[in-house]
Amino acid sequence: xxxxxxRRLSLQQIVEGQRRAAxxxxxxxxxxxxxxxxxxxxxxxxxxxxxxxxxxxxGKTSLVREWREAAGEFGAVTASVDESADSVPDVLAxxxxxxxxxxxxxxxxxxxxxTYRRARHDAAGRLAADSETxxxxxxPGA
Length: 142
Hints:
Helix content: 40-55%
InterPro entries: P-loop_NTPase
Number of domains: 2
Number of helices: 5
Keywords: ATP-binding, Nucleotide-binding
Largest sheet: none
Organism: Streptomyces anulatus
Distance between the termini: 88 Å
Mean pLDDT: 85
GO molecular function: ATP binding
Protein name: ATP-binding protein
Shape: elongated
Oligomer: single chain
Structural class: mainly alpha
């Protein structure tokens, strides 16, 4: 009888393993992040938000990817945004979508965002209608 062969890794698993092995230069930040999970929320050293900033090409995206991977190992829910989110509602919508993808929908926030979008759309429609009024006269509803 032959010993059972080790389970073969998929190409995706091999590439991910190589990417993680190549992660260098941010070990201290990753260690601090991991250690934070051992601290109770009441501990003054516990951090609820980790903020990353820096010049392009210094490994911010890789660090955040590693943090999210580590958080998943501890059963934590994570969300991140970049500069493409240009307003608070956009950030909140991104967070809500990411939490939902992880099985933790924020239904109340989704309802509030829907209300906000509807109000913004209505206001934009009224503004457009007002600007089309001939002679700059106020619209009948004003």
